[in-house]
Specification:
The chain contains 18 helices and 14 strands. The protein has 547 residues and is α/β, with parallel strands linked by helices.
Amino acid sequence: MTKVDSIEKVDQTGAIRHQRLRAPTEHGQAFLSRPREELSWLIRTNRELRRVFDFQFSGSTNQGSHICSLARHELVSKALRYTRRYLDVDFNLDGLDNIPVILSGHQPTLFHPGVWFKNFLLSDLASHCGGVGLNLVVDNDICVSTGINFPKSLAPGRATMGNIPLDRPSANLPYEECPINDWEFLREFPARFRDSDADSSSDNLVEPLWRELAIVRKRMGNIRDTLLGTLLAGARHRLESFYGLKTLELPISWMAETDSFAQFSALILANLPRFREIYNRRLLEYRSIHRIRSRSHPVPELASRDDGWLEAPFWIWHHDRPTRGRLFCRTVGNQLEISDLADIHYRFDPDHAAESWVEIHRNGIRIRPRALMTTLFARLLVSDLFIHGIGGAKYDQLTDAIAEDFFELQLPSYLTATATFKLPFDREVFSRRDLVRRKQQTREFRFHPENFIDTDTGQAFELVQQKREWTRGKFKEERSKRKHDAIDQINAKLQKLAPVSEADLREKEAQVAGRLRASEVLGSREYSIALHPETIVEDLKQMASTE
């Protein structure tokens, strides 16, 4: 196993600078944005940075250190309670303020090995520095797919992508609201996978994951916990524990119901006009520097309405109608009113956010952070190091800038990490450059067929001379249909003298295009960890090791 680290320094001081983050292209390579020997120092530096935090919460001052301590204790204690529902773990909460807390996170799916690498790194770093590693399960995202992609047909040039569903289809709901529609269908996935035309390693991780999935369902059991994301994440976490990883897990839905998150959210909402101005200004700056034209990337701007409603960077929905909507807020006297501008309206006192949050949840209303707010909360109040993938790292440069303007402080630095693993197939390697060259050759034959034949004598020589007269001689400056048609007729005659035809070249172009598609299918780094051989575990352990 080749172990290669690509190191890229990233400015995390709040100044937005153009950065290019790329996952490794070769199998068995890792990307880290910081040298390994710097990571212990980085954690210590982040801890020192948070000790001097001083910002206002719920109408009080000098509450930075207090709210950080509250958030750390709430998240770790909730993570311990949540993880114990399906996995036997032990952790002493005494002295939590004096040890590092390292965070990462992802949606509750059976993701690809590049994401899994973060979990191995999370466990290794926490163990190395005597801290706790906590993985946030992003269950407030929409469950857009309940299947696993796989490559089928390994014949040269014919490999295509297939998909095997895990569960019966359901509406696009947040993972925390997405139940299992057909348990037997999900339970029988390994058999359906074996019977399919999927090509995968014979010793893949499907069976081990599904053994753990059955244990998770048995231990958690009740209707509320019979959620697809809960079972998948729990099975993956149990498998990690089997292989020696030591981490805790906590869903965003649990994090969002803590007192510290209530106070954090109330602070944003109570100062929404200022926060929104900073958010949108920094977002436009980010797009300009990165030359992004899309109005939805990396996130949309926060909207406003003439009647006083301002959009906040949170989601809102009602448990009985779990369609995720944008949260809007306005000030009414001394209270804040939140709404989805449809069915949900609720007023609360921001100086009593924790008590109000309990009541909001009791009324079936769900308030969840969007991506930037998740990492802003986690990095501001909880983590001594946050481990991002490539995607999260790209947008969190924007988070740094927003925090610098709104809180007037520098957020603790984050680490960007990913790895590339491909399924163990023999495959032809084609690049897009191969196809581009073929397309250029076809175009060359159409417009310059003389480059494909001997033009020194005979009819070819005469035709080339005629063409040069039109393009370089006395007709050089002429712009007319007559000239265009004449050159086309000469090219057609030259093409007939060539040993190949345009049809031959287009057929070869199509063959290269097919082989390129097959190469991309078989060489993708995006296949689920379930499809990979068990040997990937030791490779990831070695990659993540800080020894």
